[in-house]
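Dissemination and training. As part of the outreach component of the grant, students in the summer workshop were shown how a complex can be specified as a set of sequence lines and then modelled as a single object. The example used during the hands-on session is reproduced here so that future cohorts can follow it. Participants entered these lines:
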Amino acid sequence: MAGTLAEKVWRDHVVRKGTGGEPDLLYIDLHLVHEVTSPQAFEGLRLADRQVRRPDLTIATEDHNTPTLDIDLPIADLTSRTQIETLRRNAEDFGIRLHSLGDADQGIVHAVGPQLGLTQPGLTVVCGDSHTSTHGAFGALAFGIGTSEVEHVLATQTLPLAPFKTMAITVNGELPAGATSKDIILAIIAKIGTGGGQGYVLEYRGEAIRKLSMEARMTICNMSIEAGARAGMIAPDETTFAYLKGRPHAPEGAEWDAAMEYWKTLRTDDDAVFDAEVVLEAADLEPYVTWGTNPGQGLPISGRVPVPEEIADENARVAAERAVEYMDLVPGTPLRDIAVDTVFIGSCTNGRIEDLRSVAKVLKGRTKAENVRVLVVPASARVRLQAEAEGLDQIFLDFGAEWRNAGCSMCLGMNPDQLAPGERAASTSNRNFEGRQGKGGRTHLVSPLVAAATAVRGTLSAVSDLDLAGDVDLTSFDGSPLAPLDPSVPMHV
Amino acid sequence: MEKFTTHTGIGVPLRRSNVDTDQIIPAVYLKRVTRTGFEDALFAAWRGDASFVLNQEAYSAGSVLVAGPDFGTGSSREHAVWALKDYGFKAVLASRFADIFRGNSGKQGLLAAQLAQEDIELIWKVLEAEPGTEITVDLEHKTVTCRDVVAAFSIDDYTRWRLMEGLDDIGLTLGHEEDIATFEANRAAWRPHTLPAKHLPTVEVTPARPVS
Ligand code: SF4
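and obtained this result:
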């Protein structure tokens, strides 16, 4: 039977077919756990006297609450400390592998799975976190779940799931220099809206997607949820296999061959039918920035803050009015004139090594704009080590940026890294909701390149606004894997 | 889980679209490790504003929230449902819900009922004209009644059945333990395992320090 990629992965995981409107029961291959959405799930297990069915398919890290400074000292915030200590106790009690603060494999859960080679094509991956969609970049069916589902997976290693629809998002052509996969996904969300993907699993395809590195693909899949989608996927190909090969948990020898044989079947059949299709031309894209308070409120950086009265749709107009007011913007202002107080480079969207490399390329030899605070937070401790081995940390420090320990940090401001009320940030993260990065804080979502250029100029900027003297090739993301990693051999940019 | 057949309670008009879970419960409250006691966190950023609907006497004891389209978008935090429930809400009516929020609601016994936007507008008008008006949500017949407005709502059959039976998810699944074991027995050996743990070389992570 012809099928889309998502349908194939689904079929291969049906434990029990639902009858009469009942959902299918799906097997879960990999369950990622972090400190925020798990305590109540473990509490539930204890209350019902249940065990974790498959600790060997479960892995936990500390990320949302972890401080990015002084990680060897006790966590000052008591509630953060409680959550983290609760996770440590739960992991110990239930026999779950945990990467704690200070461990080289600690970091944002969506960075840790891929870098350890645990995220593989054709898996079902879940986590109590909406950005689990990140793992779809490998051709896995990966989605965020709520805490009671976390408990369900812990207890049964399965989930009852209602079927989804499929949407193909085809991105043709080639990205212009200075535009990145972040701009592709911001453009997609601006086009289909924050509810446009609702009920769908998105499959990104087309020439522009095929050309992206693994990490750039993760950025796109990461933000599928911002279009309201259940998940986002990209069919695995040579890029995927090359990224996986040699990682600690990737299959080896005969198992690698068996896996490859299966992985190569993971593509949408030519005669399969999607429920919806969207097409984008990469060549038309330029760097995108958001002006409002949802990720769909984005525009090319050459644009201006919208004038709400000119918006015909009433809901969109009301939303725009509120957003412009909250963001303290004057309608009609060129986006490039918006001055920021903070630049945040990090998160599970754009905190990986390639992101840091691309930022370092732009920042090298420059100094930051006055009065701008620049925070660089690697997604995982491994990314940090790799960046330090490559000398990127020194480039950031020389530029005037702060170089931090790994974690979610200012992406959601659960740790001390927050925006002050009224403060404005250019952020490489994925959500610009009111107060997301700190109460009263204002967020503009941008790509790492735009974040870097903005840090140089102090106003929202594209790299084309800088005099790069032609020596920086912004298209060459080589996707070098994190493993095998030998920190004693520094690789300088 | 309590069985849900019908509920009658004060309707609360929330005239906002795209109410995301960060608005329903800001991230700072996610730090708690308990399952209950989130009533103070509900719409925390708006509760300081005297004109906010829940701060108005007539609506403060509301139990049926009538919201704009795309309710519950954003983060998957189930705390959003806990906060609504802890505050006393039994049902949320909207013309569109985010999938994850809808899923979470069903599992927690909070009814997420999908109505046509025209019906939401009619109900808003009634609730605003007469604050404190009650709404009856009838899950059996899938209807909502608010004074003379009677509207049908949709909900998937499975969630409806579970809500009406008050069934716990895990217990349902564990009834199929044999199927799970059979599936596991046939699972490809190369699929990854987190244990025993395999690592890259161990290296020391030094703490970052504040810059002076
Ligand atoms: S970096 Fe941000 S979006 Fe990603 S997991 Fe952490 S808080 Fe969520």
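The mean pLDDT of chain B is 93. Students were then asked to discuss how this feature might be tested experimentally.
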